[in-house]
Design a protein that fits this description.
Strand order of the largest sheet: 1-2-3-4
Oligomer: single chain
Radius of gyration: 27 Å
Helix content: 25-40%
Structural class: alpha+beta
Number of strands: 4
Shape: globular
Strand content: 15-25%
């Protein structure tokens, strides 16, 4: 005699084995196959720090180091870019610095070191020409980042 629970489990096993309804499967579905998703999707998610730096001076220091060292990973960690676009942007950004043989790179926070709205990047090209440009600085949830938006107060 079939009990409702036993019958439901049997149908579940038959369906997983590719049998038609009512057919008897010779091999029951293993218990581990009831899990949904791949084994990798059941692993705990690694903790990832939010983007940005803990303070404006730390942002200046880390941004200077990332730009001078052409470190795309460190630079991506300072960008305020949604999704995974920050990684590609950082790689392209660093590539331009490499291609121009940029050196003597420095970063100044403006208008105030403690509450900046912009980071002014300065340096020299391989040909000895000076360059300077501004990047918007944003703050959210205690983290300071570089954003690619106009630094409008």
């Amino acid at each position: 005699m079939r009990t409702p629970l036993r019958h439901a489990l049997r149908e579940d096993n038959e369906e997983a084995a590719g049998c038609s309804a009512g057919a008897t499967s010779r091999w029951p579905r293993p218990s581990w196959s009831r899990w949904r998703g791949s084994p990798a999707s059941r692993r705990p998610v690694a903790h990832q720090d939010p983007p940005g730096a803990a303070s404006p001076p730390e942002l200046r220091t880390e941004l200077t180091a990332a730009l001078s060292g052409r470190d795309a990973d460190a630079l991506a960690g300072l960008f305020d870019v949604p999704g995974s676009g920050g990684d590609d942007l950082a790689k392209d950004y660093v590539s331009v610095l490499k291609d121009g043989n940029a050196h003597d790179i420095s970063v100044r926070l403006a208008p105030d070191e403690r509450s900046p709205t912009a980071a002014v990047v300065q340096g020299k090209t391989g040909a000895g020409e000076q360059f300077s440009y501004r990047l918007a600085v944003t703050s959210a949830k205690g983290r300071w980042t570089v954003a690619f938006t106009p630094p409008i107060p």
